[in-house]
Amino acid sequence: QFPFGRRLPCDIYWHGVSFHDNNIFSGQVNKFPGMTETVRKITLSRAMRTMRDLFPLEYNFYPRSWILPEELSLFVAEVRMMKDSNPSWKPTFIVKPDGGCQGDGIYLIKDPSDIRLTGSIQSRAAVVQEYICKPLLVDKLKFDIRLYVLLKSLEPLEIYIAKDGLSRFCTEPYQEPTLKNLHQVFMHLTNYSLNIHSGNFIHSDSANTGSKRTFSSILCRLSSRGADVKKLWSDIISLVIKTIIALTPELKVYYQSDIPAGKPGPTCFQILGFDILLMKDLKPILLEVNANPSMRIEHEQELSPGVFENVPSPVDEKVKVAVIRDTLRLMDPQKKKRKDSHVTVPPQEQWLGVRGHPGLWEVSRWQGLDGLSSEVAPKPTRAALFCRCQCSEQGAAASEEPPDAAPGPEAALPSLCLKQVFPKYARHFSYLRLVDRVAALFIRFLGVKGTTKLGPTGFRTFIRNCKLSNSNFSMAAVDILYIDITRRWNSMGIDHKESGMCLQAFVEAFFCLAQRKYKAQPLHKQVLSLLELCECRLAALHGKRLVWGCG
Ligand code: ADP
């Protein structure tokens, strides 16, 4: 810890809250610039909406959401329309203030005309979301899952998921929402910070009882009831990868602004907390992403009125220590050097090579994680599996890394709890990365390093270089498009520090151009066609410039 500042450069910097040190020119930092802003409720909802517009089926794991106050009338109109088309639909909505956490300011409503909604939205921006009324219950209680995800690198994209997480329980038996029980937070909200104040909260030293348990204990229970936990894991992996794909465009804009390419700077990684709810049919639903998940491994206990003591929490310790330890192992700057001297092991062997002692649950869990790649990787024979398990017991450490040739410092450590899911499953998801490519165009035309918004000249240059204007779409029309969209986005009060067109506004303009040019196709095809056209024309222009440069 450097409470009074730091002088010497470090290999790894571990910041408590966010990326804030402008004085780092090398090494690795545990926060990405702009992550906190990118996962705020409103920004996340917007990013998910963009992806859902492109890929409605792939992004149906995020509840339908509206942003308040700007979309209040849209919310009212859409709910009315859905009710008209399905009179038996009796929805409930959850209102969450933007930037809130720990359940702060959250409430449920049955009707968009609820006075609490219309009365409060002008004072605080919020997201109103369809409430998932039929969650999976365990012991009659609602619970959610906190999963830890390591974003190891943005470019190239590398994602790891912790093999175990936490399940946080409500403290009152669940009932579907009615006007009578809407306000009962201990029944509807799973936040630890709220439920800890309920008289029913149970601190348990065991991983499979009490108000906070390991996720693996829940899976074990589901598995014993015959549930398909393999499919559940594969759905969770998809949810995580798709969510990060939705977040990367915005993160890349922040990244180039804080750590411009070509200048000395650190690389970044970050542990994210994914909050996931399971529906009765085991479909995972994303609730939110936390940029700064709590890594506390103790809880406060009131010994006598007003006197508190920190008590170890074995469940937190089991999950969180492994996540931090293995994040450091993966980011270890010495690792690359050691790795370079290893013999490469084929990917499926790496994966199976270090199982430790898989029990019944372990086996099904691994199969679940491997489910996505089952068509890709041939299944090993039992003999091969046995042989590799033997190897693991002799001290191989990391499932994603080649075993150490000579017993290194990792030999004494347990196998990695972090499982690589990207680029491992990249080929299943790469087609979703369209907005990433739109963001690459945006960044290319930003011009001045350190900015996050595109000026009118940059937008004109983009249109000109990609040859998108013609007799039907004059440069005057281009300027009007720029002004219209930019003004609307800037009036939403997101970021007034800089003037110009933000990434989301550029994405909207790009979609608009794509729809105009390629009529009567699904949106994702229109966007893909325009992207290919732009990329092709820019490559040709770049080629010409190189030739001119040589000449
Ligand atoms: P916060 O950041 O304040 O914790 P969350 O989005 O995590 O906000 O919501 C708090 C809690 O409310 C969640 O842990 C979950 O129990 C419940 N919740 C949130 N959104 C929904 C939803 N769409 N359907 C059902 N329950 C939800």
From TrEMBL:
One GO MF term attached to the UniProt entry: tubulin-glutamic acid ligase activity
A cellular component annotation (GO) from this entry: ciliary basal body
Keyword ATP-binding: yes
Alphabetized UniProt keyword annotations: ATP-binding, Ligase, Nucleotide-binding
InterPro entries (UniProt xref): TTL/TTLL_fam
Any Gene Ontology biological process: microtubule cytoskeleton organization
Transmembrane segments: none
Name of the protein in question: TTL11 polyglutamylase
